[in-house]
Amino acid sequence: MNHITFLGQPCQTGTYVLWLRAQGDLAVSFGRFDGGRPVAVAAGHYAYVGSAMGRGGASPGGRLLRHATRTAGKPPHAIRAALLAELPAAGLALPRVAPPPAKRLRWHIDYLLDETAVEIVHVTLLRAAVRLESAVAGRLADAPGAVAVRPGLGASDTPGETHLWRLRGEPVDALPYLTDCFHDIMS
């Protein structure tokens, strides 16, 4: 199975969904979210919605490679090798996007992705010149079996939204739903 899906227009910006698997129960402090109190993250599958509307590190290639990198001393996510191979083939590594050797935890999702018990198992990039992050997050909120990990989590730059969802089934079960939603949003 291909672990990276590209949909949409051949442009250099877009919205992405990281499909995650937590291999065990965790208690994660998401930076300053909820005063730094740990949030329970049960073993299972999750989806995170983000956007990459800039250049360089804020481009889809830069953002996805950053997400697939952990802090110093921790191994990168296994999908990073596939991203390094597929981003240039999709025209998303121009001028040249390289993964950071390590990252500093900045966004809510960074704290979850830094856990070695959590893996990015699939990436879906919805290539579009317009920001679709809120629309995609709203559609995921309505997906069968999707439950917000905590209201507001993963969406510090979009108050009132949530961008991290626990899924009832495997990420592959939600991909057709997301593809249909993307086509609806774009039409």
Topology:
Elements: E1 4-8, E2 14-22, E3 26-28, E4 39-41, E5 44-52, H1 60-67, H2 79-89, H3 108-113, E6 118-127, H4 133-141, E7 147-148, E8 164-167, H5 171-186
Helix pairs in contact: 4-5
Describe it:
It comes from Candidatus Promineifilum breve. Pfam families: DUF123. This is DUF123 domain-containing protein. There is one protein chain. The protein has one domain. The chain has five helices and eight strands, in the order E-E-E-E-E-H-H-H-E-H-E-E-H. The protein has helices at 60-67, 79-89, 108-113, 133-141, 171-186, and strands spanning 4-8, 14-22, 26-28, 39-41, 44-52, 118-127, 147-148, 164-167. The protein has a six-stranded mixed beta sheet with strand order 1-6-2-5-8-7, with helices on both faces. Helix 4 (133-141) packs across helix 5 (171-186).
Which percent range fits the helix content?
Answer: 25-40%
Order of helices and strands: EEEEEHHHEHEEH
Largest sheet: 6 strands, mixed
Structural class: alpha+beta
Give the count of structural domains.
1
Radius of gyration: 15 Å
Query: Please, how many helices?
Result: 5
What's the end-to-end separation, in Å?
A: 28 Å
**Which sequence of strands runs across the widest sheet?**
1-6-2-5-8-7
What best-fitting shape do the alpha-carbon axes yield?
A: globular
Q: What percent of residues are in strands?
A: 15-25%
What is the residue-mean pLDDT, rounded to a whole number? 88
- Number of DSSP strand runs: 8
Question: In summary, what is this structure?
Answer:
The chain is of the alpha+beta class. 27% of the residues lie in helices and 24% in strands.
